[in-house]
Each structure stands twice: as structure tokens, then as C-alpha cells.
Design goal:
heterodimer, A: about 0% strand, B: mainly alpha, about 0% strand, elongated
Chain lengths: ~210, ~80
């Protein structure tokens, strides 16, 4: 089989770094750190919950980049490959803590539904927490809510909604089926929706969207 | 209050609907139900708002000196 036929097109910045790496420039991996460290650190922070573990996770990821970049054949995007290493590092770290994984059931997460009662108002949850310092309390609440997601749902939620990977890319990164990604993402979002409803119920009473 | 079974089925497809991952017929069927069922319409709207709000929660700054320390580590491991 023709090896080049299976290659995918890389983001231009990644392609430049890969070309330099192949030409023997050892600083190329350092440039990957400039490009990815901040994103991976925040990914790790959301997955591990504290800065120390997030930094360890990023270092483990780069150790594996150093070890295995030579074998990278461009069959996937470099970014996806790096996130596969990072996700594996997060999963390994989680296993080390040996905590049982909680399953989320849609049955528990579905908001109450009362066809016989008055038609509920659509609440306004459109405030963007990044807009203003005034919203720092909301932002903290959202971050805590993400941290409360069971690990396997948090991983999918992070990749899909916060890192912006498509369903198929997340499936490739985690070596799961696209359907498994969709199922976990929906449960994660339903869990987080209820957390947000609780926040509004607590702070703006009666604007909890039926939850 | 428990939702009728057809409302439960639509709830299960909300994420795929918002992500544009449903086939056209299923998406149209869901939209029609949302127009007919105020409870599900509210559910869809606050689900949509929740997804959008979490997406803009923002990043934390990376600790001072971390990238330099990481690059030193990479240099040592590359030798």
C-alpha cells in the first residue's frame, strides 16, 4: 500500500514543526511545547483537578512525544495524536487513584416534565461567564460542576465541547465508537445542565428551567 | 413528574440535534415535536444555553516558568 495515500493534511504550523523535526532539528519538539503546553495544561487541569497533576500530565505527554514522534506517520492530525497521548496519561493517572467510576443514567438526569401544569418559561442562562469578572462566581460554579463529572464523561465532554474535536475525532483519540462518544457527551451535558439549573435556582430562585 | 415515552426519546437525541448529527427526517420530526410540546421546547432551549455557557468558561493561565521547565525537560530527554 502507498504510505503517503493514508496521510492526512496537517495544520500548517504543525506541518512546519514536523518538517523541521524530520530534518533533524531537535528544537522542534520544544516548539511543540510552545504551541500545545497551555492547551494541554488546561485540559489536564480539568481532568485531574489540580495544577500539580496537570503539570505532571503535560510532562508525561511530552515524554511520550519525544519517545514516539519518530514513528508518527501522519495518518492522523498531529493535534489528535498529541491529545491521544494526553488522554492516555489522564486515564493512567486516574487508574492510579483506584476510585470506582460512577455511571450517569439519563433516567436520573432528565428534567421533570409536567404536561398538566402551567407552561414553564424559558430561563435565560445565556450569560457568558468569560464576559465579566462579575461572573466569576458562575465561572467557579461551572468549573466545579465539570470537576464533579465522572472521569469517563468528563474526558469526552472536554474533548468535544471544550477542545472542539468532532465526534469522529474524539472516537479516534479515545479508541471508542462514535456512538459511545455521543452517548457519553449527552449524559455529561445533561448532568452539567442540571448543575447549572441548581445554580440559577439557588441564586435567582425560580429560574431553574424546570429542574 | 415522569415524561411521556416519546418525550423521553426526544430528550435522548437533543445533543445530536444541537450538533447537527441527526439525519434530516429525524431532525424535522424532533423540531415538529418541539413546536407541539412546550415542556420539551423549554428543555431544548435550556439545554442549548447550558451547552453554550460551558463552552465559554475560559482557561486558567499556565504557571510561571512551566513552559521553560518543560522545554528544559524535553531538551534533556531528546539528547
Amino acid at each position: 500500500m502507498n504510505e503517503t495515500a493514508r496521510q492526512v493534511s496537517q495544520e500548517p504550523e504543525d506541518q512546519t514543526i514536523l518538517d523541521r523535526y524530520k530534518a533533524g532539528d531537535n528544537d522542534a519538539v520544544g516548539d511543540l511545547a510552545d504551541r500545545y503546553a497551555s492547551r494541554l495544561y488546561n485540559f489536564g487541569l480539568r481532568m485531574c483537578g489540580n495544577p500539580e497533576d496537570a503539570q505532571d500530565m503535560v510532562q508525561d505527554t511530552f515524554l511520550n512525544i519525544v519517545r514516539y514522534l519518530k514513528g508518527f506517520r501522519g495518518e492522523t492530525k498531529l493535534r489528535n495524536w498529541i491529545y491521544r497521548l494526553a488522554s492516555t496519561a489522564c486515564i493512567r493517572k486516574r487508574r492510579g487513584k483506584n476510585r470506582p467510576e460512577r455511571e450517569l443514567s439519563l433516567e436520573e438526569l432528565r428534567p421533570p416534565h409536567d404536561h398538566d401544569g402551567p407552561t414553564p418559561d424559558i430561563p435565560d442562562w445565556s450569560t457568558c461567564p468569560a464576559d465579566s469578572l462579575v461572573n466569576s462566581e458562575l465561572r467557579d460554579h461551572l468549573k466545579t460542576a465539570v470537576g464533579r463529572l465522572p472521569h469517563k464523561y468528563r474526558l469526552v465532554f472536554n474533548l468535544r465541547d471544550l477542545e472542539g474535536f468532532s465526534t469522529n475525532e474524539a472516537a479516534e483519540i479515545l479508541e471508542l465508537s462514535p456512538q459511545a462518544i455521543k452517548t457519553r457527551l449527552h449524559r455529561a451535558r445533561a448532568f452539567l445542565r442540571n448543575e447549572l439549573a441548581d445554580y440559577y435556582q439557588e441564586h435567582h430562585g425560580g429560574n431553574g428551567g424546570g429542574a | 413528574v415522569s415524561a411521556p415515552s416519546h418525550c423521553r426519546e426526544y430528550f435522548e437525541r437533543l445533543s445530536e440535534f444541537l450538533d447537527g448529527e441527526l439525519d434530516q427526517m429525524t431532525a424535522e420530526d424532533l423540531e415538529k415535536h418541539m413546536n407541539d410540546c412546550p415542556e420539551c421546547r423549554v428543555c431544548l432551549e435550556n439545554f442549548r444555553q447550558s451547552v453554550d455557557v460551558y463552552k465559554c468558561v475560559g482557561d486558567e493561565p499556565i504557571p510561571d516558568g512551566f513552559v521553560d521547565a518543560l522545554k528544559d525537560f524535553i531538551r534533556r530527554e531528546t539528547k
